[in-house]
Amino acid sequence: MARVYKTAGRQRLLDFLESSPDRQFTVEELCAEMDRQDGETSRKSTVYRHLSKLCDEGLARKYRSDTQSAYVYQYVGLGDCCHHFHLKCVTCGQLVHLECAVSEELLSHIADHHGFEVDSGRSILYGLCEACASLEKKQTPTHPRGCTCGHHH
Amino acid sequence: MARVYKTAGRQRLLDFLESSPDRQFTVEELCAEMDRQDGETSRKSTVYRHLSKLCDEGLARKYRSDTQSAYVYQYVGLGDCCHHFHLKCVTCGQLVHLECAVSEELLSHIADHHGFEVDSGRSILYGLCEACASLEKKQTPTHPRGCTCGHHH
DNA sequence: TTGCGTGCAAAGGTTTTGCATGGCA
DNA sequence: TGCCATGCAAAACCTTTGCACGCAA
Could you report the per-residue pLDDT of B38-55, keeping only the tens digit for each? Predict the structure, then answer.
């Protein structure tokens, strides 16, 4: 891997990502934030290049969003985000780290009985957080959001 | 929903998707397949429009791929793909429907203890199928593929 | 006859890349 | 001094949309 210089732009980006480790950001959002912090803007291409490096270094991760058309990036630091699921609310965007023994059980079960090694850090479980779920229920009591299966349940 | 006409193009696409219910295809791949089947090509914009309708009708689903930059589409027919996880091998692309009591348990647990309603049909678990996992192990015995967490395990 | 299907081209949005210049080590 | 970082513009890529015409019902 090429050497990484410690420039102001990189540091500001890293600091910001680090300050919100449980959120995911688009490049658009990150540029806006950089602009907001100080007149010192960072151009998109530069931010893309920073993020690409940060992912290579293992400090950030790049994900596809279910709802947004752009990539989203999240700080993972040197902590271990590779070995637990993430829950992402499709309505408000909140991201939860699910460090939970029951999901470990599922992983073992899948490995043993279905012959599949799930990379939990790469897998995001989409759904509704408590707050958004209760809002949904008030608005559409008959059928859960986003379900197109035609079945009644 | 608008009425749907039964045209040759739509039927060919639907037949093909239906013949591989456990695979996901990009629009690129579907166009190539349509071209291959007979001189009758289908243009991308048309395929996009078909797929959009099929998703509305509940016959297909549109997903974001973790690895590919484009959307992928999968036939789900009238079966119920909304209520189980899918396992996707990041190497060979195979997609497995995980109808499994243990994952139901995890869903209940997450709902009860983490206050989160996971939409399992919308969530894909990425990892390695048995065949690809054993290949991986031969090639890189020290560190699992794609894990950038820096931890040893 | 009505309105959806289809192809083409253009537009829109996101990400990558080439090049020249500036800055870190 | 040697790379890497940065900004700008252009290219590349994927998806959607407008329009005109064809075809199903």
Answer: 655 668 999 999 999 999
